[in-house]
Amino acid sequence: MKKENDLMEKIISLCKRRGFVFPGSEIYGGLANSWDYGPLGVELKNNIKNLWWKRFVQQRDDMVGIDAALIMNPKVWEASGHLNEFTDLVIECKKCNTRYRDDLIPGKRCIKCGEKDFTEAKQFNLMLKTFLGPVEDKDSIVYFRPETAQAMFVDFKNVLETSRKKVPFGIAQIGKAFRNEITPGNFIFRTREFEQMEIEYFIEEKNWETSFEYWRSEMQIWMKEVLGLKEVHELEVAKDELAHYSKRTIDFEYEFPFGKKELYGLAYRTDFDLKNHYKDGAPYKEEGGEAFYPHVIEPTFGVDRSVLAVLCDSYQEEAERVVLKLKPQLAPYKVAVFPLLKNKPELVAKAREIYDDLKKDMMVAWDDRGNIGKRYFSQDEIGTPYCVTVDFDTLEKDDSVTVRDRDTMKQERIKIKDLIQFLKDHV
Ligand code: GAP
């Protein structure tokens, strides 16, 4: 376990050192388990979200997106079952009063004081409450959404009327969700504020198994081919552990340094949600047909867990360097540009010209500190796939630059006029 913890510590330290993820509110002593994405982290996260949106919304005819309010009418959570069912069992150490999620306490021994005497397990609702407006009474209680999913059901009719989609079709959303987790932890793995990318895919009941299999394979392709994760495991969730809305769920698990844990989920939500929100009648009807409640397959993807899995999977220590072997499309910077020497204005000017030109098409880093070897290693550590060096040959001989590949560390000369195309082809 020590080795795994070391790896996690190294990743957390790299994230802080290089600006991927910082502890939230740090100058005030932090806020338990809250994290801020820094300049590189936000690029990595946005790359994941943009690839997801492009792939699952923009490039498909059967999908549309929404971006709904985080706080919804509390009746939504009554109808969805979250007010009653969205609970975890909590136990409390009788000695120091620390609370734990019942299933997450190893050896049933208090992590804080070592005591083994706990209270009976009690249900604890995970929704984060607040008050809307100036009066703080029970009528002004509202909840931050614990999943993005519900807006896709509540907006179902509006989407249908404006998009004229026909079943089968899906509604997607990327956004924040909040849960008052009893035991948050493991860096950005389990937090109280996190982001989800969710699809509610509406189908006829008779097609649920085919659709489930289809989305299962789409999720596998996303994880393996788009994110580049080497290995993902599937866990069939036992019937007695299914969420209150699900008839079947598969968890996709990733081997994080702290153990094999849920990365994403795929659920068959039946017509549970639409039936509860549209009690006055079925919300879907095709010309000449009977109105009915479409059934739902839900592929759900955690954004922060995607970032964490990608970081863990791509982190490598080699003889003299640490390298993030990120898929180029995920890397915060696609290329870094260096003048060989920073005190030679003609080299700097040429390198700047190339840098400015590339910047129109992609994220480019600039570095003129230290020697070239150090600059390469510095870019390796943040996963930049290519480094471009402008040297005296560039100016005097061949109008070419040295392009160094992050993974092979090989260098080749490429004509400046061909550089953009080369990079576009490779990143
Ligand atoms: N709409 C279905 C739903 O919300 P879920 O399994 O509870 O299902 C979906 O959550 C995904 O959201 C998870 O697979 C995970 O990636 C992410 N997630 C859930 N709770 C999280 C937390 N506390 N911190 C970070 N990510 C979380």
Feature tags:
2 domains, 7-stranded mixed sheet, 427 residues, alpha+beta, 33% helix, BirA Bifunctional Protein, domain 2, 22 strands
Q: What fraction of residues sit in β-strands? A: 25-35%
Annotated CATH homologous superfamily of the largest domain: Bira Bifunctional Protein, Domain 2
Distance between the termini: 36 Å
Q: What general form does the structure show? A: globular
Task: Please tell me the total number of domains.
Answer: 2
What percent of residues adopt helix (DSSP H or I)? 25-40%
Q: What's the total helix number? A: 13
By secondary-structure content and strand pairing, the structural class works out as: alpha+beta
Instruction: List ligands, each type once.
Output: glycyl-adenosine-5'-phosphate
Mean pLDDT: 96
The biggest beta sheet is recorded as:
7 strands, mixed
The count of strands amounts to 22
Strand arrangement within the widest β-sheet reads 3-10-11-15-14-13-12
Task: Report the uncertain regions.
Answer: none
Radius of gyration: 25 Å
CATH topology of the largest domain: BirA Bifunctional Protein, domain 2
CATH architecture label of the largest domain: 2-Layer Sandwich
